[in-house]
Amino acid sequence: MSIAGRDFRELRLEDLSRSFGALNALKGVSLTVKRGEFIALLGPSGCGKSTALNCLAGLLTLTGGSIWLDKTRIDRLKPEERGFGMVFQNYALFPHMSVRRNIGFGLAMQGKSKDEIARKVEEALSIVRLGQHGDKLPGQLSGGQQQRVAIARAIVIEPPLVLMDEPLSNLDAKLRLEMRAEIRRIHDLIGSATIYVTHDQEEALSLADRIVVMRDGAVRQVGTPTELYARPAHADVAEFMGYRNVLSARVLGGSGSDVQVSVGGAALKGIAIEQRPDEQAIVAVRPDDLKPANDGPVAATVESAQYHGREFYCSGRASDGTELYFCSALPVQKGEMVRLAADPARVLIYAGAS
Question: Which of 37, 226, 252, 347 is most buried, most CB within 10 Å of its CB?
């Protein structure tokens, strides 16, 4: 295979800021990306992740900070001079051009010879598994196939970095799963770094080597999928990473990182994250870690139960009115009283009030 990402050691984002009038969309964002890494920028709408990607692509200018590719400062370069591949949410294909011409467009703009363009386009078609569709127009392809064309167009120029802005959001659930695997396969095959913007936690966890969680224009945590899933550094990161039970609690006692708190009118043991709380705390526990148990400390009345295949996803109300989300392997009925328990290692406790 001749298509491969252009060689580099690292990409550095140093203290990036971007303002739109009085709105600070990026606030001191710093990050180092190594060649071959797959980085996911994750966060809710308006957190700054797409702004960061557009600044990196050169589609937006920086208000402050700098971007470096090894020893070359690139934030002052035009988008086409940076040599990055870009995959957009809406594919951005030319509807009047064949698949081959769409893929080869960037190479043609670089002044490559017809023979080189033809050879690289055929290889890119093979990489994205569209070898039989080269003469079709984009409108004759499915959404998933169009996205593959967009990926082929991005990688055929052999970029050091591929930028992807929520590329799967327009696809149905089955296609999203298939394309996740394809995107990761292609990333591993060509060896470029990838920076991938998404608001989908599951997408980020399944694709990325490291996840950058953003909120209000700032980086809240950078870590591996395992670290982000098991040990969110802040309560707001925990909430975004699927800890649907993020509850105010009163500290009862404990020693070291082991803390006992009052939740739902009952005592619950957990692990303090970063600093040990004094009086008020925030407790985060995933619904799939909170389950019915005969000796469970928290009593709750079932309010709803939805069957999700292997188990029931439920909501309930504790005696003090606290709403709790939990999972049950066995059917439970609305109005039924259950006792809930969680492994203390899965109950994360943060200092502060909710």
Answer: 347
Reported as a pLDDT band with limits 50, 70 and 90, residue 217 is very high
Cα(128)–Cα(122) distance, integer angstroms: 10
The closest alpha carbon to 163, from 51, 308, 287, belongs to 51
d(CA 262, CA 311): 27
Percentage of the residues of the chain whose pLDDT score is greater than 70: 98
Judge contact between 104 and 117, C-beta under 8 A.
Answer: yes
The amino acid at residue 77 is L
- Contact assessment for residue 276 and residue 351, using Cβ atoms and an 8 Å cutoff: yes
Whether the per-residue pLDDT at 32 is higher than 80: the answer is yes
For residues 332-349, average pLDDT: 95
Which pLDDT does position 64 carry in this prediction? 96
Q: Is the per-residue pLDDT at 307 higher than 60? A: yes
Kindly state the average pLDDT of the residues 5-28.
91
